């Protein structure tokens, strides 16, 4: 791996290492690009980036099969307001001028192909993106995307779920260069009642046999209590719907983030 290729990987891994050195799981907030509006997004993102170890920005997409109703509605609102894939990357480029926190983009494959894989990677790298989360791309079905990401210095992250077979966990874990994203429950994103752990400990124990990267857990983490449960077993905690709901309800996103980030302390 060349120095250029290692840029995103190194920055992401360093963020996890800093959190680990402070005896906590990395705090990874998510926000849909262009939500609640293109004009309002930067202030929300600034508040989250100021508290994050890494931040995940979702590219609005009309058919987000892995997302629950909260993030789906946020995507619909952003799209209706004119936010596109290119526009989202432009918004990230503006954020990068103010923040050094690693930023990863969550995107489905179709938006990448709509722009063109190489052009997408070029724009993402130019914007200062550090990595991609690819929820609908099995790593054994399209290596072009991962190879292009590496060429442009971007890390790649794939997902495992409680329903993943041992063979699938091994394949996905070995393919990740940024971090491995473990879905805490079967289904889509969104806040849920009860424990955030479920089958997570067993899933992570299996994944750690193969993963050479940190493991973050998301889906269903919506407050300090659920973040604390996940932080006990994972290297990172991903939280999304709670922040979209906070924006929708007119809450102080920074205060919500402070509370959840505190739950990441071990």
UniProtKB/TrEMBL annotation:
Any one GO molecular function term: tryptophan synthase activity
Entry GO CC: cytosol
The reaction(s) this protein catalyses: (1S,2R)-1-C-(indol-3-yl)glycerol 3-phosphate + L-serine = D-glyceraldehyde 3-phosphate + L-tryptophan + H2O
Catalytic site: 56, 67
The keyword Amino-acid biosynthesis is annotated on this UniProt entry: yes
EC code(s) of this entry: 4.2.1.20
Keywords from the UniProt entry: Amino-acid biosynthesis, Aromatic amino acid biosynthesis, Lyase, Tryptophan biosynthesis
Enzyme class: lyase
Pfam families: Trp_syntA
SUPFAM superfamilies recorded: Ribulose-phoshate binding barrel
Pathway note: Amino-acid biosynthesis; L-tryptophan biosynthesis; L-tryptophan from chorismate: step 5/5
Secretion signal span: none
Keyword Amino-acid biosynthesis attributed: yes
NCBIfam families: trpA
Family, similarity comment: Belongs to the TrpA family.
Protein role: The alpha subunit is responsible for the aldol cleavage of indoleglycerol phosphate to indole and glyceraldehyde 3-phosphate.
HAMAP family noted in UniProt: Trp_synth_alpha
Assembly description: Tetramer of two alpha and two beta chains.
Protein name: Tryptophan synthase alpha chain
């Amino acid at each position: 791996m060349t120095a250029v290729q290692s840029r995103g990987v190194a920055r992401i891994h360093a963020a996890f290492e800093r959190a680990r050195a402070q005896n906590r799981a990395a705090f990874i907030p998510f926000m849909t690009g262009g939500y609640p509006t293109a004009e309002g997004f930067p202030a929300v993102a600034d508040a989250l980036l100021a508290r994050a170890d890494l931040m995940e920005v979702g590219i609005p997409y009309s058919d987000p099969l892995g997302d629950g109703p909260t993030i789906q509605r946020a995507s619909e609102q952003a799209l209706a307001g004119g936010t596109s894939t290119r526009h989202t990357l432009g918004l990230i480029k503006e954020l990068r001028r103010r923040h050094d926190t690693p930023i990863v983009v969550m995107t489905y494959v179709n938006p990448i192909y709509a722009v063109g894989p190489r052009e997408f990677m070029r724009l993402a790298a130019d914007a200062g993106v550090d990595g991609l989360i690819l929820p609908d791309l099995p790593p054994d079905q399209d290596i072009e995307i991962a190879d292009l990401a590496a060429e442009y210095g971007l890390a790649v992250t794939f997902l495992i779920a409680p329903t993943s077979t041992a063979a699938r966990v091994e394949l996905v874990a070995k393919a990740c260069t940024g971090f491995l994203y473990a879905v805490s429950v079967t289904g889509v994103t969104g806040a849920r009642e009860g424990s955030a752990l479920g089958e997570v400990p067993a899933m992570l124990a299996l994944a750690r046999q193969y993963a050479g990267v940190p493991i973050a857990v998301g889906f269903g983490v919506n407050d300090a209590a659920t973040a604390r449960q996940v932080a006990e077993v994972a290297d990172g905690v991903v939280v999304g719907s709670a922040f979209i709901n906070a924006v929708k309800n007119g809450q102080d996103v920074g205060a919500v983030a402070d509370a959840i980030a505190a739950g990441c302390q071990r």
